[in-house]
């Protein structure tokens, strides 16, 4: 009667010699990776409370850390508010198409998608010996310049120059309403 599964002889034949033979850790140029020493009752991986480097917990309000804390707060503010201003401005004010609004929303958050590459660049190419600070300053300078350009640019006239015209159905437009509508307003959204 056949036995389900591999037999013991079959299993021994399939094991590689390297997995059966005991190796010296230093043999062949390999260096052993040692787990940090733990104290009795301490779990493996809880080296100094899970810290990546020796020393105590950093003080977030210290001179060296307050900039990073401020950076994350402002990034959250910009990343949370800027995309949410697109719909009211482009859809309600300029009456742009849905595809224009969606494209603008994606363009605003596109730099956030490249943060991994910015991190690699800052780690591989330090500026004046610093890996983070110069890149943060360059990024915030670009952000401030772009926000100033957006604030200075004229926004143009709205699509509906009279707000109550928005509530009128298109078939019910009178010649007076048609004369008041700014049909060139959606092209302002392409700037």
Automatic annotation (TrEMBL):
Cleavable signal peptide: none
UniProt membrane topology term: Multi-pass membrane protein
Residues annotated as transmembrane: 60-82, 135-156
One Pfam family linked to the record: BT1
Any one cellular-component term (Gene Ontology): membrane
Localization (cell): Membrane
Keywords, alphabetical: Membrane, Transmembrane, Transmembrane helix, Transport
Family label: Belongs to the major facilitator superfamily. Folate-biopterin transporter (TC 2.A.71) family.
Entry protein name: Major facilitator superfamily domain
Source species of the chain: Phytophthora cactorum
């Amino acid at each position: 009667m056949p036995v389900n599964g591999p037999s013991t002889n079959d299993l021994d034949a399939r094991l590689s010699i390297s997995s059966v033979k005991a190796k010296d850790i230093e043999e062949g140029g390999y260096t052993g990776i040692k787990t940090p020493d733990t104290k009795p009752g301490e779990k493996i991986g809880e080296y100094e409370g899970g810290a990546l480097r020796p020393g105590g917990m950093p003080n977030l309000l210290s001179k060296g850390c307050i900039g990073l804390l401020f950076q994350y707060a402002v990034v959250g503010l910009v990343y949370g508010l800027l995309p949410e201003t697109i719909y009211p401005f482009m859809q309600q004010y300029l009456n742009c198409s849905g595809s224009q609004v969606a494209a603008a929303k994606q363009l605003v958050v596109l730099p956030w998608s490249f943060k991994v590459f910015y991190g690699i660049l800052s780690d591989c190419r330090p500026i004046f010996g610093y890996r983070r600070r110069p890149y943060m300053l360059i990024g915030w300078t670009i952000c401030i310049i772009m926000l100033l350009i957006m604030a200075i640019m004229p926004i143009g006239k709205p699509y509906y120059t009279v707000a109550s015209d928005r509530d009128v159905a298109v078939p019910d437009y009178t010649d007076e309403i048609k004369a008041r509508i700014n049909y060139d307003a959606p092209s302002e959204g392409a700037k």
